[in-house]
Amino acid sequence: MPHPSACLMPFHGSSFKGPARRFAGALLGFLILGLSAPAADRFHFSFAGAGAGALGDFRKNVPGAFGGLTLDFLFSPNASPLRLGASFGLLIYGSESYTDFFPSRYADFEVDLTTQNAILLGHFLLRFEPGRGRWRPYLEGLAGLNHFRTDTSIDEYSSSDSGPSVTNLSNTVFSYGAGVGLTGRILPWRSWVRRSDFELRLELGLRYLRSSDAEYLTEGDITRQGENLVLDIRRSATEMLVARLGLAMRF
Prior knowledge:
Layout: H1 18-34, E1 43-55, H2 56-61, E2 66-75, E3 82-103, E4 108-128, E5 135-154, E6 165-190, E7 196-216, E8 222-225, E9 228-231, E10 234-250
Antiparallel strand pairs: 1-2, 1-10, 2-3, 3-4, 4-5, 5-6, 6-7, 7-10, 8-9
């Protein structure tokens, strides 16, 4: 493997001088060292619990914390520190359970209902994770879609099936963001040639996500006036911080 300083040869006689040249050399050396990551790091799959908090105008409508789950799939071409993949998630930012009456021709039946407000997340993911130690920090960028939806369903409709449901509102918007995190090796599995073929790692991360203006409902935004349902639809950009804690598999 060439020494990082060998990569500075193309810059001789150029405008790169002093601190700028030293910074460029350090950065190139950092990247070259990272390119020798072991083959066991090529594929990454993680499952994490998520806690989120709204920011900006979104926080005015959703003031409390909420949670959910995330799934990440990443691939490292040529075992480099750059990882490409996708991230999926589900966040529940409000839920109401109540009793209402279901009318029929001869009687009104009392039923239990649940209205749930959720965000489905789907993003392309680019992650930079240098280093080969037990603990590895990373930086990442995300771009994709947030799907806001509110559904109302009848609870325990039968012993073997969920009850009927209706979507009160759904809206999909473009979303982007950035994140930082850290993974730590918990369990390596080594083959007879002493290479790590599988690793179980602890993963902690924090992401900032922002979307263009979205339409969504919050708790109490659905009311009835006579025989008509009235939706008090909120509209704003949606900013949030999403903290993640989970397990990652590398192979």
